[in-house]
Amino acid sequence: MHGWNGRILRVDLSESKVSIQRFEADFALKFIGGRGFAVKILWDELKPGIDPLSPLNKLIVAAGPLTGIPGPSNGKLVVAGKSPLTSGYGDGNLGSLAAVHLRKAGYDALVVEGKADKPSYLYVEDDDVSILSADGIWGETTFKAESKLKEVHGRNTGILVIGPAGENLVRYATITSQEGRAGGRTGMGAVMGSKKLKAIVFKGTKEVPLADPENHKKLVKESYSDIESKENYTFWIRQGTMATIEWSQENSVLPTFNFREGVFEFSRRIDGYAMEAMKIKRRGCPNCNMLCGNVVIDSERRESELDYENVAMLGSNIGLGHLGKVSVLNRMADEYGIDTISLGSNLAFAMEATEKGLLKDGIEWGDFEGAKALMEDIVYRRGNGEILAEGVKRASEKLGGGSETWAIHVKGLEVSAYDCHTVPGMALSFGTSPIGAHHKDAWVIAWEVKTDRLGYTKDKVDKVLEFQRIRGGMFETLVACRLPWIELGFELDWYPKMLKTATGVDITLNELINTVADRVYSLIRAFWVREHGEKWSREMDYPPTRWFKEPVTKGPFKGGKLDMEKYDKLLEIYYNERGWDERGIPRQSTLNKLNLGEVTNELSKYVSLSP
């Protein structure tokens, strides 16, 4: 087999056992890699109803056939498991040398199960795999722990690490790498922490077997040149995703005061131009020539790597209009190993709960010092932090007082940084995201504001599906970064070409973004439905209540809000297009068409299936 190593590394921490599982070409072609491998393993091996923080959960680290080999933005991997935050399928991706070294060590995925009897870390150097003591790094921040591991194992390693948030089982703790690369906002850091696993260190010296290395090299050179020739490349290098602050403000979708509004009075103080004045360098993932990590010096004279999501959620969403201070919060979150999107949502929830008298000893809007202190309380589960470490859904259930209407989440995952009072297509994207409310799978909002923004049309459903199939299907299985395509217009045809030179297999673009993507999405949906059984309903795909009941009061769309009846019609069209029934459950015929017949038999044990 070319392109794939054909090997999955398995580690049972409870038994201190290491084994190698080999897979054949049919498995690879059916699920490609990354998210595809992850959901298939979790579907096959997890029993529904298990506690995500128990030894029965599994942590998957999965690459794809393009991961770690030369090619635009191919330095990413997927981390997945049953989510402690949503209790459904959870994953995330991050760019890291760990992706490269996982593949060069001879593996396409790692499966970790069980729980170590004491703090440990995993060291993988080619075929040498060891479970080592983490006594000297347990309790350390991600930055310090990674630095210590590099002192021991060398700088030419790939390291995935958790911080105190993961150790203390904060339900939105992340897995981090390289002082700012983070993934798994569905709580994958907490899954690692529950296993007493502080870090995973990869060191590979092998070469991934390519089918046509000479033509691959030529193709990669041409593709890099193509990216650099794109019209928006120079401005992208200047601001990266930070340009979205200005765009979101202009289009009234910048999350402000816990998603009450779409505009922020002090947006210019936190936008891409403010960032440029503070910027000292850029960082990015391996194999990338359009680095998106803008590094600034924050108000405490430390380096902080910024992008749009963390600045919007820790800035406008909590009423903080000072980029230097926002940068401090972002850097602290990276050190603690806690997701910046969910953190910003939980801080804003606490501020609103304080305003409404539901939270004692709370925090006021825009309180920087208070936000720092509350973040630490969340990480170490102290006082109000104990409530907020559970996420806004559980926090609202505990506080009551009508707070469920302004707990901004879908399926338990906090919404990323786009207010959707007046963009129903993006609201549908959040509602139907396979992990809960996340922009990664279908960022249709830029297209939507240029078209019939306020309309509830089939065109919007079609665009959500198109983007889910490309962003959440093709890119998450290959595994490669979507930014060259979505930001610069890098043509999708490059990917099946590179896949062929890597694997020798002719897989068309249509197969990648339709057949494979739909197979993966339906399997993820089956995972969710199996967890809920007959309690599953279409309401699971509804966006936050606030967007329906509380119109925005500022900006060009003052008075705007979503219409529930019209949204439901969008959802009905979406289900029909996916081949799911009126509850949002894949039909038997759809599962069979996608070559998931075995899923039909299993799922029918937990819920009645439509033909």
Notes on the protein architecture:
With 611 residues, the protein is α+β, with helices and mostly antiparallel strands. The chain has three domains: 7-203, Aldehyde ferredoxin oxidoreductase, N-terminal domain (Aldehyde Ferredoxin Oxidoreductase,  A, domain 1, 4-Layer Sandwich); 255-419, Aldehyde Ferredoxin Oxidoreductase Protein, subunit A, domain 2, CATH 1.10.569.10; 428-489 and 508-603, Aldehyde Ferredoxin Oxidoreductase Protein, subunit A, domain 3. It contains 26 helices and 17 strands. The strands form five sheets. The protein has a six-stranded mixed sheet. A hairpin with a 2-residue loop joins strand 7 and strand 8 (128-133). The model has no long low-confidence stretch (mean pLDDT 97).
The total tally of domains equals 3
Briefly note the CATH topology name of the largest domain.
Aldehyde Ferredoxin Oxidoreductase,  A, domain 1
Helicity level = 40-55%
Poorly predicted runs of 5 or more residues: none
DSSP strand (E) fraction? 5-15%
Give the name of the CATH architecture of the largest domain: 4-Layer Sandwich
User: Structural class given helices, strands, pairing?
Assistant: alpha+beta
CATH superfamily of the largest domain: Aldehyde ferredoxin oxidoreductase, N-terminal domain
Strand order of the largest sheet: 2-1-6-3-4-5
Q: For the residues shown, what is the average pLDDT?
A: 97
So what's the CATH class of the largest domain?
Alpha Beta
Count of helices? Answer: 26
Q: Give a short account of the largest sheet.
A: 6 strands, mixed
**Alpha-carbon distance between the two ends:** 37 Å
The geometry reads as: globular
Q: What is the alpha-carbon Rg in Å?
A: 22 Å
Total strand count, please?
A: 17
